[in-house]
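Support case: user asked for a sample of complex input and structure output to validate their parser. Sending the pair below.
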Amino acid sequence: MATCTFWIDGKQYQAEEGMNLVDAAKENGVFIPSLCYFKHIDPPLGTCRTCTCKINGRHDPACTAFVKEGLKVEVNTPELLDMRKALIEMMFAEGNHFCPACEKSGNCDLQHMGYELGISTSRFPHLFKDRLIDYQPKRMIMEHNRCIKCRRCVEEVFTKDGKRVFMYINRGNETQVGIDYGQEAKLSEQEAENAMKLCPTGAIIVRGKSLSQPFGDRKFDLESTQQHFRHTITEKPKVANFEKKTIATVSLAGCFGCHMSLLDIDTDLLDIVELVSFNKSPLTDIKNFTQRCHLGLVEGGCCNDENIETLKKFREMCDILVVMGECAVWGGLPAMRNTIPLGECLEEAYLNSVTSEKGENTVPYHEDLPKILDRVYACNEIVKVDYTIPGCPPSANHIWKVVHGLLWGEDYSLLYSEFKYD
Ligand code: SF4
Ligand code: SF4
Ligand code: FES
């Protein structure tokens, strides 16, 4: 086929005429984010819109476009970058994506795209829908809370005699992927595994197979697909004109992992102690504020009324409020209970769990105990939050770089590997 010349963001490139635009851009070193696009599905699905670019002046998905002579494409304008981020954020808010507890973590295209686009939190409220987790299929588990309706499985998974295994059911907002149990049972072990790999999220899980890859060997463990990928935030303080600052920290509905991460900085902690002093914090065991602080670091969201009171006090006493870790940013793992009514959660925990005393019929209650809230709230639902540090937990270096940057205000870059947690 003939070679043609086309343009991306004002730069001239060449590719084979008729080549898919996402692939042609990639071949020329330009990253166009994509999610539902799968090279072998022809025609391309075009369902997720993550790859939307301006193509000859129109907003169109790049994965359904083909290069031709003189094609003009805009990829990285602020408007397009923000729109793509918004689309991915919506997917995270619409489903229940608890990555640290997900079998697909590290091999998940949706999670990877979140990292690639530098998404640290969603601007949309999480819906916490309670969708079916279907254990009926013979080899698979269908986790409908993670499905992004990309249609890959519907179009690509067939039995040897050509029967469809997955299909869309219901309509509009209620659309979901159905599974034909009879046909699924005919799939070989390998075919079932292929379906799991084809799914860009952790919606299709094969029993006994999904956690077989160790950390470090998973698909997205090593590198960003974008060269020189960095998030610019802030740089180390110029110690020459530094003034010692005061920090407070607290753990609300979290596991204390973020605080453990704070300590992971090991001997560098000695340098930090020269730069900052700690006020109220589990690290100092100072239980009440003794002065106003320059910066407050909060781990965990709010699951009871005491958490809310503490968080409000932090907001009042700290000039800059930073929330660190997934639980503080949007609820994290404790928010897994948000899809289940509180009464059922308490019954499960105190009356019906395997560790409950036989015949137990009391859910603990005392006026001195903090009152449990109807659901777990992210910190920004309760008070104004100035900055968020994502991760479960964020690494020690990341936390301290952010703190340094905010307190002494200079820019530095955060490497992809420092921004990536799963
Ligand atoms: S499907 Fe992907 S994005 Fe969703 S919880 Fe699993 S790893 Fe995270
Ligand atoms: S189950 Fe997976 S492959 Fe199928 S539509 Fe949902 S996200 Fe796509
Ligand atoms: S990757 Fe192009 S529409 Fe999904």
